[in-house]
Write a structure and sequence with these properties.
Number of strands of chain B: 0
Structural class of chain B: mainly alpha
Largest interface: B-C, 35 and 38 residues
Helix content of chain C: over 70%
Distance between the termini of chain C: 39 Å
Low-confidence stretches of chain C: none
Mean pLDDT of chain C: 84
Mean pLDDT of chain B: 90
CATH class of chain C: Mainly Alpha
Shape of chain B: elongated
CATH topology of chain C: 3 helical TM bundles of succinate and fumarate reductases
Shape of chain C: elongated
Number of domains of chain B: 1
Strand content of chain B: under 5%
Chains: A alpha+beta (about 240), B mainly alpha (about 110), C mainly alpha (about 110)
Radius of gyration of chain B: 16 Å
Order of helices and strands of chain C: HHHH
Radius of gyration of chain C: 17 Å
Strand content of chain C: under 5%
CATH architecture of chain B: Up-down Bundle
Oligomer: heterotrimer
Number of helices of chain B: 4
Low-confidence stretches of chain B: none
C-alpha cells in the first residue's frame, strides 16, 4: 500500500451530549496512529474540532477516547490495527464522562470519586519518627506495586458498565488507587478508607465484568484490586460485629 | 448498611453453593423415570435431617435473592431508596413464609 | 454492533448470572406454592405433578434446572475471584461453566423425559 493510495473515512463526534457524527476523509499513511489522524483533521480540515493530547508517546493518558467502540489511547493505537474492514474509523468521546465538546470530556467527577474513595495518602500523627521501612518484596508492597502505575487516564472508567448503570459508583480507578493505599503500611487512614469504599456505591458494585482490566493501557487489573477491597470490607464488617 | 448486605449475600452464596449442589444431585436422582407425590413424600415425611436441610436452604435463599434483586433494580431501573428496600424486605418475608410452609407441607 | 465491553467473557458471565438469578427469583415462590399443595394431601400434589408431564412444562423445568446450574457455577466463579484471589480473565472458566450446565441440563432432560 503506497502512501496516498487510499483514504480513511473518519466519523467524528461533534457536539456535546447532543450532536452528530461528521465524516472526514484523511489519507492513509504508513504507521499512522489515530492521534495522527485527529491532529491532521484539526490542523488541515477543521480547526474547530476539540480534542486532547499531550505527550503523544503513551505516558500521560490525555488522548483517551473511544475508537470504534473501544476506549483507548489514540497515540498508541495504529490505524492499521483499529480501522474496520471497510476502512472506516469512528471516534467518540469516552463513555461515562460528560462531554465538554466533540472529543474532550469533563474529568472532574472522575477525580472527585478518587477523593470520595479516599484515594489519597494519610500520613497520620507520628511525623517525628524515623523513615518507614517498607520491604519491596513484602506481600502488601507487591500488591500495591501491581496497581500503583495508574495515571488517571479514565479508560477503565469509560469501559465500566456498572459506572454506566450507576453514576454514583466510585469506579475502577478510584477503587484501584484506594487498594494501593490499603496496602501502604505507612498510611494511617485505612479505617476511614475501608468505610468509604464499603458504601452503596463502593467496591461491592463491581460485578467482575473485567472490562477495566481488559482495556487498561498500563496492564493494571482493577478487578483484582477491587476484589482485595471486598475482602478488606468483609474482614472489617466481621470484626466490627465482634466488638 | 451496604457492607452488611454484601457480607450477607456472599455468606449465603457460599451456603447455597453447597445446598444447591445437594439439591441438584437429589433432583437428578429423584426424577429418573418420572416423579409422583408419593415418591417425594415417602422421602420427606418425618425426615428431620431433610427438614432441617431445606429450612436452612429456605432461610439462605430468602436472604440471598432479594439482595441480588436489589442490585439489579438499582442498576437497571431508576428505582432506588427506602421504598425499594422495603418492597424487597417484604419479598424476603414472602419467600421465607412460603418456603418454610412448603418444607412443613412435605415434612409433616 | 455490540459494544466492545460487552464482548468481554466477564460481561457474558455476569449477564448470564444475573438473568438466571431473575428467572430463579420468579420461579421460587411458584415452586414453594406447588410443594405446599401437599398440605392438602398427596393427591393434591399428584394433581399438580400431572401438569408437569406436559412437554412445555418439562421444557421449562429443564430451563430452570439449567438456570440453577448456571447461577451456581457462575456464582462460584465470582466467589473464587473475590475471596480466593483467583486471577481468572479468560473465557476458559466460562466454557467450563457452560459445559457443566449442559451436562446437568441433559441429565435432567434424560431423566425426566
Amino acid at each position: 500500500m503506497t502512501e496516498s493510495s487510499s483514504m480513511l473515512a473518519v466519523e467524528v463526534w461533534r457536539g456535546a451530549a447532543r450532536g452528530a457524527f461528521q465524516t472526514f476523509r484523511v489519507p492513509r499513511r504508513r504507521h499512522q496512529t489515530v492521534l495522527d489522524v485527529v491532529t491532521e483533521i484539526q490542523r488541515e480540515q477543521d480547526p474547530t474540532l476539540s480534542y486532547r493530547f499531550a505527550c503523544r508517546v503513551g505516558m500521560c493518558g490525555s488522548c483517551a477516547m473511544t475508537v470504534n467502540g473501544r476506549p483507548r489511547w489514540t497515540c498508541r493505537t495504529r490505524v492499521s490495527e483499529a480501522a474496520r474492514d471497510d476502512g472506516t474509523l469512528r471516534l467518540e468521546p469516552l463513555r461515562n464522562f460528560t462531554v465538554v465538546k466533540d472529543l474532550a470530556v469533563e474529568m472532574t467527577q472522575f477525580f472527585d470519586k478518587w477523593r470520595d474513595a479516599r484515594g489519597y495518602f494519610e500520613p497520620g500523627a507520628n511525623r517525628g519518627g524515623d523513615f518507614a521501612v517498607v520491604p519491596p518484596a513484602s506481600a502488601a508492597r507487591q500488591a500495591a506495586d501491581a496497581a500503583i502505575e495508574c495515571i488517571g487516564c479514565g479508560v477503565c472508567y469509560a469501559a465500566c458498565d456498572v459506572v454506566a448503570w450507576d453514576r454514583d459508583y466510585l469506579g475502577p480507578a478510584a477503587l484501584n488507587r484506594a487498594w494501593t493505599l490499603v496496602n501502604d503500611v505507612r498510611d494511617a487512614g485505612n479505617a476511614a478508607r475501608i468505610a468509604a469504599v464499603a458504601g452503596d456505591s463502593g467496591c461491592q458494585c463491581c460485578h467482575t465484568h473485567m472490562s477495566c482490566t481488559s482495556f487498561c493501557p498500563k496492564a493494571i487489573a482493577p478487578t483484582y484490586s477491587i476484589a482485595g477491597l471486598k475482602r478488606a470490607v468483609v474482614r472489617a464488617a466481621l470484626k466490627g460485629g465482634r466488638r | 448498611m451496604s457492607a452488611v448486605l454484601f457480607v450477607a449475600q456472599r455468606v449465603t452464596a457460599a451456603i447455597l453453593a453447597l445446598a444447591v449442589a445437594v439439591h441438584l444431585a437429589t433432583i437428578l436422582y429423584a426424577v429418573r423415570g418420572g416423579l409422583t407425590a408419593g415418591e417425594i413424600l415417602a422421602r420427606t415425611h418425618g425426615n428431620v435431617a431433610f427438614a432441617t436441610f431445606y429450612a436452612v436452604f429456605v432461610v439462605a435463599v430468602a436472604i440471598h435473592a432479594p439482595i441480588g434483586l436489589r442490585n439489579i433494580v438499582r442498576e437497571w431501573t431508576p428505582w432506588r431508596g427506602v421504598a425499594l428496600d422495603a418492597v424487597l424486605a417484604v419479598f424476603a418475608i414472602v419467600l421465607l413464609v412460603l418456603g418454610l410452609r412448603a418444607v412443613m407441607a412435605v415434612y409433616a | 454492533m455490540m459494544r466492545a465491553s460487552h464482548r468481554q467473557p466477564g460481561f457474558v458471565a455476569a449477564l448470564l448470572h444475573r438473568l438466571s438469578g431473575i428467572a430463579l427469583a420468579i420461579f421460587l415462590p411458584l415452586h414453594f406454592l406447588a410443594l405446599a399443595t401437599a398440605l392438602d394431601g398427596a393427591a393434591a400434589l399428584d394433581g399438580f405433578l400431572a401438569v408437569t408431564r406436559m412437554p412445555w412444562v418439562k421444557a421449562s423445568e429443564c430451563a430452570l434446572v439449567a438456570a440453577l446450574a448456571t447461577h451456581m457455577t457462575l456464582g462460584l466463579r465470582v466467589l473464587a475471584i473475590e475471596f480466593l484471589d483467583v486471577r481468572e480473565r479468560t473465557a476458559a472458566v466460562l466454557s467450563g461453566c457452560a459445559a457443566a450446565v449442559v451436562a446437568v441440563g441433559l441429565a435432567f432432560a434424560l431423566g425426566v423425559g
